[in-house]
Amino acid sequence: MPCYRPPRIAGSEITPERFFLDRRTFLAGAAGGLALGLGMETANAAALKAAPDPYKLDETRTPEKDVTSYNNFYEFGTGKGDPAANSGAFKPSPWTVKIDGLVGKPREFGLEDLLAFPLEERTYRMRCVEAWSMVIPWVGFPLAALIDKVEPLGSARYVAFETVVRPEEMPGQSGFFQPLPWPYREGLRLDEARHPLTILAVGLYGKTLPNQNGAPIRLVVPWKYGFKGIKSIVRISLTETMPPCTWNLAAPDEYGFYANVNPAVDHPRWSQATENRIGEGGFFGSNRRDTLPFNGYAEEVASLYAGMDLRANF
Ligand SMILES: Nc1nc2c(c(=O)[nH]1)N[C@H]1C(S)=C(S)[C@@H](COP(=O)(O)O)O[C@H]1N2
Ligand SMILES: [Mo]
């Protein structure tokens, strides 16, 4: 049995910028050539070109080198540079995602089946609970399209997700000290999962998803804190009751099930009112921008929470 060391993440207010920059300089040589040649650029290219982004943002995209070198993916280590440095041996192909639980047609989807969904580009803000943010051009498809294929039963109310467990390929899952209990788990209410903003991403910047960003398929829910965006998914289950979620289990007073971005509800150890947009500088209070309710997607999603106390149900 590994020793489970309770995680204690910190706000980016206290992230030493020098450390991040050193790591990044060190890793710069590894940042190229990360597309793993799954053929995504050719598969579905026509559909991708044809589909306009309905949520197009008028904000500068975070440079690709930052999106692929400053990551949270504890299966590869807890440092921001660890996922890019330690995920070279990870094999995202072949891959299957099992869909089970309260569905009429449970089945396994191979990577080819997943890449066959009409792909779209979606440029979304991503706001980590640690108070940093990015703007990322994802490639993916609505989770609703996948859910429809398996025909949810009337009793299904939630969707549970699980990340792969592969200690041989994921150094953060082996060794005596491990930062989290595996598999990493996340969940959504079924209506959140079906919302058109919610996508399964298979790429970014028009390329196959790099290992450190959750290859070959990860969840993106842009109005929620980044930890809801579970990576390298192998199982999706429809359930009647609220599924257990990794960070919520680890520290329930710090990370809620809903985890909707909310500048009015501070993390117990730091403010959530402002954020540091990666690539713009400003770790130490200069150049911070205001965090927006629902990460700027209130018009689209606030109605999902009508009548809910958003301070209590964080
Ligand atoms: N399996 C898994 N998924 C995960 C994480 C993780 O540690 N393991 N970290 C989460 C957190 S805290 C964030 S902010 C985002 C980061 O996504 P990115 O590295 O692609 O920017 O992934 C989320 N998904
Ligand atoms: Mo995060």
Helix content: 10-25%
Q: Spans with pLDDT under 50 lasting ≥5 residues?
A: 13-38
Q: Look up the CATH topology.
A: Sulfite Oxidase, Chain A, domain 2
For the record, give the distance between the C-alpha atoms at the N and C termini, rounded to a whole number.
33 Å
| Ligands | the ligand Nc1nc2c(c(=O)[nH]1)N[C@H]1C(S)=C(S)[C@@H](COP(=O)(O)O)O[C@H]1N2, molybdenum atom
Instruction: Please report the total strand number as a whole number.
Output: 14
CATH class value: Alpha Beta
Give, in order, the helices and strands.
EHHHHEEHEEHEEEHEEEEHEEH
SS class: alpha+beta
CA-based shape: globular
CATH superfamily: Oxidoreductase, molybdopterin-binding domain
Query: What percent strand?
Result: 15-25%
CATH 2nd-level architecture: Alpha-Beta Complex
Protein name: Protein-methionine-sulfoxide reductase catalytic subunit MsrP
Subunit structure: Heterodimer of a catalytic subunit (MsrP) and a heme-binding subunit (MsrQ).
Keywords: Metal-binding, Molybdenum, Oxidoreductase, Periplasm, Signal
Family: Belongs to the MsrP family.
